[in-house]
Design goal:
The structure holds 2 protein chains of 2 kinds. Chain A is built from 6 helices and no strands. Chain A is mainly α. Chain B has 3 domains: 173 residues, Cupredoxins -  blue copper proteins (Immunoglobulin-like, Sandwich), CATH 2.60.40; 125 residues, Sandwich (Immunoglobulin-like); 128 residues, Cupredoxins -  blue copper proteins (Immunoglobulin-like, Sandwich). In chain B, the strands form 8 sheets. In chain B, strands 14-13-12-16-21-18-19 form a 7-stranded mixed sheet, with no helix packed on it. The chains are: A mainly alpha, B mainly beta.
Chain lengths: 157, 502
């Protein structure tokens, strides 16, 4: 269970990194497309078409943010109930709350663009929290994994 | 390796703690999973269902007088609601729908055609004529149904799969008969799997001329549509050139067939002659203003070819324009105005033909967005009066009623609201009363945080959709219905005909 918990926490952190990457990828594609004379407005946005490839960044961001990350955070929270480590539930809950807040702030950005800035800031908080949540768990296997290479390196050939 | 140290305490206490350690996580998990599973299960739709069984009845403050059931005893079927069955047709139109690859702006795009083209043929008739459209579906796999957007046709002819008819499968036919009872600019489009089918071009223009014709010398219908990201007018990428002599007056009938609002502006002053097929009363000249044309809406713009040999541009968004003037006459792209024409105060007041103050029904249509499950899918979904699909309101009226609807967009995105079978007149926006020409709409742009008070006369019995014309939103459940007491539909959503109106 600890392994699952640790992996899930790291996946949340990795997902935050992916979210940041695909969004900037999409914006870069948009800027390049507009630079080439393209018009991006509500009709194009809602047409379901992909006028430039990087639109997939927005689609991935939306699917990840709405479904995938909340689902992983929820499974992490449930896993934490069975992880007999002090603070595991607390940190899973912090991650979960930050994920929920991140989604709400993101949608709020549709109305108040400044919320988008907070969305970016909260992403850093979420990344840090998720990364720490994974890192603070010492699994039964990890000491072995950490020690073995050292032993091997120290052994003269 | 984990070493458990023996804690002090009695054996009973330790066993109790162990039990708790096992039970508490399970209980916490159950507390999270069970409500989610229940919500998921409750949102799943049966294999076939009637819109009459969906959601809850809203009598608009009027006493509930037809029992608790949506289905009243001895209800009339909407299939009876047809146009003058004994009258021969004045105009016969044959339409064949196909699923094929479209060539748009040098690109190949999977889409749909009507009589071999997209958009389909422009149907142009005179007011008062009885139109008979013979539809044959040749190859559209999901089936088709044609909706006459903006014309208040009899309910059985409204073309909504699963509500007023079954989707027409490949090889089958359906005949639409209706009287073009009002002059104006309209359009037709599929209302079966409407989001992909409309996006794929299963649509066309429908123009009804007044018996005496129109005053303008140039009359052009311009359907703006985006095919796979390519902006077009009447199916051609780029600008539409219309040859005309200097000094000619023109009426450009613009239809926005996309899912989002579009701005329209011109290179010289213009008048907005009509909105959604209804003439504006005493429209004045406009300059430095753009007209916001919401999804599904139409605007008739009147302007004049300049006398100096140049052309006039009518911009349909920044991307495309109708250019009218002598052959090869040029005109620079006019800058997009920062302000939009406010229809709340445009034109001059006139009588409405009914008294909104005497409304017997008052409905709320409050749009929100919240997390939940729709059709078994988790997500952030549009809500109507706080409810998610299918727990949407069924607004109930009786023939002859005057109804008021308070439409309020509490979400953060624009919604083009479309009521079938009726025209709504705008009474107020954000509480500010309308002072201009009667502003009649069938497709209303309700921006984020805006509210509208509209009124309509219940003069067209049946069961009607009242939905967002961002068809993606409709497919995600942003659909309510309006029903007249004493009517029922034999059609079902899904079921053997696989009716999927959105």
């Amino acid at each position: 269970m600890r392994n699952a918990y640790k992996v899930l926490a790291y996946i949340v952190a990795a997902e935050v990194a992916i979210q940041a990457m695909v969004m900037v990828w999409a914006i870069a594609g948009l800027v390049k497309w507009v630079d080439g004379g393209g018009v991006f407005d509500k009709s194009i946005m809602e047409s379901g078409a992909t006028p430039f490839t990087e639109v997939f960044g927005i689609i991935v961001h939306a699917i990840n943010g709405t479904f995938v990350v909340p689902a992983i955070a929820l499974v992490l929270l449930i896993t934490s109930f069975f992880t007999k480590v002090r603070g595991a539930i607390k940190w899973a809950a912090i991650v979960f709350v930050l994920v929920v807040a991140q989604g709400q702030i993101g949608y709020l950005g549709h109305e108040f663009p400044f919320a988008g800035a907070l969305h970016g800031l909260n992403a850093l908080a979420l990344f840090s929290a998720a990364f720490y949540t994974g890192r603070r768990i010492r699994t039964a296997a990890s000491p072995v994994v950490e020690e073995q290479p050292e032993v091997q390196a120290a052994t003269p050939v | 390796m984990v070493i458990h140290s023996q804690r002090p305490g009695s054996g009973v206490e330790t066993r109790g703690r162990r039990m708790l350690r096992v039970v508490l996580p399970v209980l916490a998990t159950v507390a999270i999973v069970v409500p989610l599973a229940w919500m998921w299960q409750a949102s799943r739709m049966p294999a076939a269902y009637s819109v009459m069984e969906m959601g809850y009845l809203d009598y608009g403050g009027h006493g509930q007088d037809s029992g608790h059931s949506h289905h009243s005893e001895a209800a009339r079927s909407v299939t009876e609601l047809v146009a003058e069955p004994a009258r021969p047709a004045d105009v016969r139109v044959d339409l064949v729908t196909r699923q094929e690859i479209l060539k748009i702006g040098g690109r190949s795009i999977a889409g749909f055609t009507v009589n071999g083209t997209s958009p389909g043929p422009e149907i142009r008739v005179r007011q008062g004529q009885l139109i008979e459209v013979h539809l044959r579906n040749e190859s559209v796999a999901a089936g088709v149904a044609l909706h006459w957007h903006g014309l208040d046709v009899p309910n059985a002819m409204d073309g909504v799969a699963g509500v007023t008819q079954d989707a027409v499968p490949i090889g089958a036919r359906f005949t639409y008969r209706f009287v073009a009872d009002r002059a104006g600019s309209f359009w037709y489009h599929s209302h079966q799997v409407s989001n992909p089918q409309v996006a794929g071009g299963l649509l066309g223009s429908l123009v009804v001329l007044p018996p005496s014709g129109i005053a303008e010398q140039v009359d052009v219908a311009a359907l703006a549509h985006t095919y796979g990201g390519v902006r077009t007018i009447n199916g051609k990428a780029g600008d539409l050139r219309v040859p005309a002599e200097p000094g000619r007056r023109m009426r450009i009938r613009i239809t926005n067939t996309d899912n989002g609002p579009m701005q329209v502006w011109t290179s010289r002053s213009f008048r907005l002659l009509a909105v959604d097929g209804t003439e504006v009363n005493r429209p004045t000249q406009v300059s430095d203003r753009a007209v916001t044309l919401t999804a599904g809406a139409r605007a008739d713009i009147e302007t004049q070819v300049p006398a100096d040999g140049t052309a006039v541009r009518v911009q349909l968004s920044k991307a495309t324009a109708v250019i009218v003037g002598p052959q090869s006459a040029e005109v620079p792209v006019p800058p997009q105005p920062g302000d939009e024409l406010d229809l709340l105060s445009y034109g001059s007041p006139a009588t409405l033909g009914f008294e909104p103050a005497q409304a017997g029904r008052r409905f709320d249509y409050l749009i929100g967005r919240r997390p939940g499950f729709v059709k078994g899918r988790p997500g952030m979904w549009w809500s109507i009066n706080g409810h998610l699909y299918p727990n949407v309101p069924m607004f109930v009226v009786r023939e002859g009623d005057v109804a008021l609807v308070h439409i309020e967009n509490r979400s953060s995105e624009v919604h083009p609201m479309h009521l079938h079978g009726h025209h709504m007149v705008v009474l107020a926006r954000n509480g500010v009363a309308a002072t201009g020409s009667p502003w009649w709409v069938d497709s209303l742009n309700v921006a984020a945080k805006e509210s509208y008070d509209v009124a309509f006369v219940a003069d067209n019995p049946g069961i009607w959709m009242d939905h967002c014309h961002n068809l993606k939103h409709a497919a995600d459940g942003m659909v309510a219905h309006l029903m007249y007491e004493g009517f029922d539909t034999p059609y079902r959503i899904a079921g053997p005909a696989d009716n999927r109106p959105e």
